[in-house]
């Protein structure tokens, strides 16, 4: 048994002929390792738990793609759970992971404090993704949502737009709150005479479509709309098309995240680009390495496409254009 174990686990102290016979026998018997038994003996499951607020949409698809790529590089498995945006279900999902994973990646977007730390134990290293929770002694990897939103408003103001509306994200969501804060702050700085125009949204197409319809019905319509994420912007774009509005000639439109679909709609969408897959990959690499995370947030960047390009002066220095 010990020889077979060494051969199957790639140990060097096995003669090449013996290793070949063991591998051939394993193939003939269609043997696969019993991971539960392995975890009992090694106290390692080679499994990473991933707990997300949702699994629907391109953002989470890209995030999981990045996590999965790094997991495959390290011969790790993933156990994925969603809590559908409910804080109490988040705790249930985390407790269900105990003893089944070697570490945890958790996205907890709640603005208000949650008893998150109570659901962890010292046996499981944890990396939090895009959370506003502080002071709980866990590594955190986050995007500079505030700075990204500021950059978008600055871009729209520089292109000559003066009435800039913002379609917000869900209430109580850290990312959404930071993007709204960046919008308000930049509007006060770059267009001090402009009043904020904020419409409710939920980071999805349907809320974007409702916001677009509300904008169309306004007596004094904004000349640009900045949506808290790209999915919201796509719903808004559909509402504008239905009403016969031309983007960007009648009204400009921008989003946040740079999901893959953003470049393939017509007109292609100006957005704040977050390398979503890389965010997931970085989080898992940090978890595997066990190294302290840099407290500085990841800086997204502006990608200018057709949806904000009217006959206006050349883009200021430093803006990145994307012709795709």
TrEMBL record:
Positions of the UniProt region annotated as Disordered: 300-324
Gene3D superfamilies xrefs: 3.40.50.2300, lambda repressor-like DNA-binding domains
PANTHER family: HTH-TYPE TRANSCRIPTIONAL REPRESSOR CYTR, LACI-RELATED TRANSCRIPTIONAL REPRESSOR
InterPro entries referenced in this protein's UniProt entry, alphabetically: HTH_LacI, LacI/GalR-like_sensor, Lambda_DNA-bd_dom_sf, Peripla_BP_I
Superkingdom to which the source organism belongs: Bacteria
CDD domains in the cross-refs: HTH_LacI (cd01392), PBP1_LacI_sugar_binding-like (cd06267)
Coiled-coil residue windows: none
Protein name per its UniProtKB record: LacI family transcriptional regulator
Stretches assigned to the HTH lacI-type domain: 1-42
Keyword Chaperone: no
Presence of keyword Transcription regulation: yes
One Pfam family of this chain: Peripla_BP_3
The entry's keywords: DNA-binding, Repressor, Transcription, Transcription regulation
């Amino acid at each position: 048994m010990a020889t077979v174990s060494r051969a199957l686990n790639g140990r060097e102290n096995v003669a090449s002929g013996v290793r070949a016979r063991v591998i051939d026998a394993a193939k003939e018997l269609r043997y696969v390792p019993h991971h539960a038994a392995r975890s009992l003996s090694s106290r390692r499951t080679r499994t990473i738990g991933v707990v997300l607020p949702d699994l629907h949409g391109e953002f989470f698809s890209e995030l999981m793609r990045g996590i999965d790529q790094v997991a495959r590089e390290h011969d790790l498995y993933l156990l994925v759970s969603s809590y559908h945006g409910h804080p109490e279900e988040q705790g249930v999902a985390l407790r269900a992971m105990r003893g089944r994973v070697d570490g945890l990646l958790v996205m907890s977007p709640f603005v208000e404090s949650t008893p998150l730390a109570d659901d962890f134990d010292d046996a499981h290293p944890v990396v939090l993704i895009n959370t506003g929770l502080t002071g709980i002694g866990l590594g955190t990897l986050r995007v500079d949502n505030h700075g990204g939103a500021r950059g978008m408003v600055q871009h729209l103001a520089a292109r000559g737009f003066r009435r800039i509306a913002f379609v917000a994200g869900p209430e109580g969501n850290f990312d959404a709150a930071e993007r709204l804060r960046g919008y308000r702050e930049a509007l006060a700085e770059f267009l001090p005479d402009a009043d904020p125009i904020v419409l409710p949204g939920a980071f999805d197409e349907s809320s974007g479509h409702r916001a677009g319809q509300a904008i169309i019905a306004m007596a004094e319509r904004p000349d640009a709309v900045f949506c808290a994420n790209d999915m919201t912007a796509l719903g808004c774009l559909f509402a504008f098309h239905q009403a016969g509005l031309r983007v960007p000639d009648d009204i400009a439109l921008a989003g946040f995240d740079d999901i893959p679909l953003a470049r393939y709609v017509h007109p292609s969408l100006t957005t704040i680009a977050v390398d979503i897959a890389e965010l997931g990959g970085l989080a898992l690499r940090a978890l595997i390495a066990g190294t302290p995370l840099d407290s500085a947030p990841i800086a997204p960047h502006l990608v200018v496409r057709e949806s904000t390009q009217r006959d206006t002066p050349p883009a200021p220095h430093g803006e990145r254009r994307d012709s795709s």
